[in-house]
Amino acid sequence: MKKNYKVSRREFLRMAGLTALTTISGKFISACGPLIQNLGNDELVSPRQPVDLHINLKARTDQTQIFSGQPTNVWRYSAEILSGNSSSTQTIPGSYLGPIFRLNSGQRVKIDFENDLPEETIIHWHGMHVPAEMDGHPKDVIRRGNVFNYEYTISNRAGTYWYHPHPHGRTGPQVYAGLAGLLIVSDEQEQALGLPSGEYDIPLVIQDRTFDQDNQLVYLSNSMMGTMTGFLGNQILVNGFPDYSISVDRRAYRLRILNGSNSRIYKLAWDDGTPLNIIATDGGLLQKPISLPYVTLGPAERVEIWVNFNQWAADAEHHLISLPWAGNSTPGMDGMMGNYFSPIPDGAEFEILRVLIGEKSFPGEVLPDQLSTYSWLDELDSINRKSPRNWEFGMNRMQWTINNRMFEMEQVTKDEIVRKGDQETWIIENRNSGMGMMGGMQMAHPVHIHGLQFQVIERQVEREFEWVWQSVAEGFLDLGWKDTILVMPGERVKVLIRFEDFMGLYLIHCHNLEHEDQGMMRNFLIESI
Ligand code: C2O
Ligand code: CU
Ligand code: CU
Q: Whose alpha carbon is nearest atom 1 of ligand 1?
């Protein structure tokens, strides 16, 4: 991959998402003055700024009808708009998923989050560039009956982000019980493209779940192995429903896909081999669309697909499927671990979504060949550090670790402190550092960094693991801005990251939620220069 743009600091600020502050309504600009020059934590949380949207968001226990017969007990988010545009939240009827937030870059939002669950929780805004104190760090959990007041300015590029709980050790079960929702950001650059919108812009959240005979969710009943490997369910759900199908006209659609599963990896493709037209990734629109035979999507990753159903016959039925791949294998332990006790083993082929094509046809729709502008970060700009920073995801004494350490709530070691304003090269490595019986345990780790979007510049894989890597590599989408990347066994991924605007405590962790809950997570601290 060749990226040879030199990025100046000013250019980066403009591209990295602060565009919004200069392009939103005049009212906002005159109220806050030119923010770009001295953005700091104080400026962005300053109470002087008018709030465009005020929402009451609650996490509570509930029931929902997923199957006929007995309703399913779930935990869910529900929202009420106190002030602002009433179309800022949308609910998916009957789904346990939280409301979809539809926000605009530059908007100031205030979210009063109320915990009505029988345990502690906190919300994290996955992919959003917000001050550390608004990021939903596990140290900020609140008890039942308490309220956490979030307030921040949407500074991200247009894209598909999401929100979910982040209490340490309980993220897996809470997300599993139903707590997750999409946060969709739009901006002027995107709106000018005229991409499919409204009913032609379809969010698809893919998850896997296991239900018992009474239609109740079952989490990790197979205990130890499940906690070690991650949860894999018996059924694939889309937007909270099994056997999901959509009826479409023969025209262009925008599909926004989130892998909202605890640990399952998907290798998404059309069942007839039609390539996927990818228009966006974690951090929003690509510069240009790209066509891939399939896309590999680890937990928490997003991808947006532009598809013209006019290419298929009227009344046809097509499927979005997950293609087979090598799976997370453990040499010598295949019999025991190979399928993780799931009827849909890791790496199996299965159906995800059924698309029923209608008769109404709208010919002639084309995908714009330029989608957005942004600059590539340049490795030469990481000059302030002599060597890249390493993050080794591995196993130590039967525990998932990062640089041989487990998560500790407020602990930060020297090599986890960075400086605001710096750009760095990070090498994220999936390394076998185990011992004893588990020494050979190798799994892909979907690595996520809080608060910032980064760019991928290089992947390298050890020869020993090349065969696993080859089974998914063509579907890696390393263009654009990312906040989560799948790091395969024996792989090293080099990324560029720049610590803009905010200081404070953020997280880097594995987004296999069972790995995260067990401590495959570390703080990193952004300090002032
Ligand atoms: Cu989506 Cu720290 O997580
Ligand atoms: Cu995050
Ligand atoms: Cu992991």
A: 126
pTM of full prediction above 0.85: yes
Residue owning tokens 């729709």 = 365
Does ligand 1 have an atom closer than 6 angstroms to the CB of 164?
yes
Nearest CA to ligand 1 atom 3: 126
Strand segments, DSSP code E, in 293-451 are 295-297, 302-308, 317-322, 350-361, 389-396, 399-402, 417-419, 423-430, 445-449
How far apart (Å, rounded) are the C-alpha atoms in residues 431 and 450?
A: 22
269: tokens are 């493709």
302 lines ligand 1 (CB under 6 A): no
Distance CA 494, CA 456 (A): 6
Establish whether residue 157 lines the binding site of ligand 1, counting it when its CB lies within 6 angstroms of any ligand atom.
no
Across residues 460-477, what is the average pLDDT? 94
**Residues in CB range of 482: below 8 A, 6 or more apart:** 281, 282, 283, 301, 453, 454, 455, 456, 495
Atom of ligand 1 nearest to the CA of 166: 2
For residue 394, the ligand closest to its alpha carbon is 3
Residues, Cβ < 5 Å to ion ligand 2:
126, 450
User: How many angstroms does the Cα of residue 511 sit away from the middle of ligand 3?
Assistant: 6
Q: What is the pLDDT of residues 146-193, one digit of tens each?
A: 999 999 999 999 999 999 999 999 999 999 999 999 999 999 999 999
Secondary structure (3-state) at 463? helix
| 444 within 8 A of 490, measured Cβ to Cβ | no
Q: Which ligand is nearest to the CA of 488?
A: 3
Over residues 357-416, the pLDDT tens digits come to 999 999 889 999 999 999 999 888 887 677 899 999 999 888 999 999 999 999 999 999
| Ligand 1 pocket residue status of 267, Cβ below 6 Å | no
Q: Is 179 in the pocket of ligand 1 (CB under 6 A)?
A: no
d(C-alpha 95, C-alpha 205), whole Å? 11
Contact yes or no for 321/273 (Cβ under 8 A): no
Question: How far is 517 from 104, CA to CA, in rounded Å?
Answer: 32
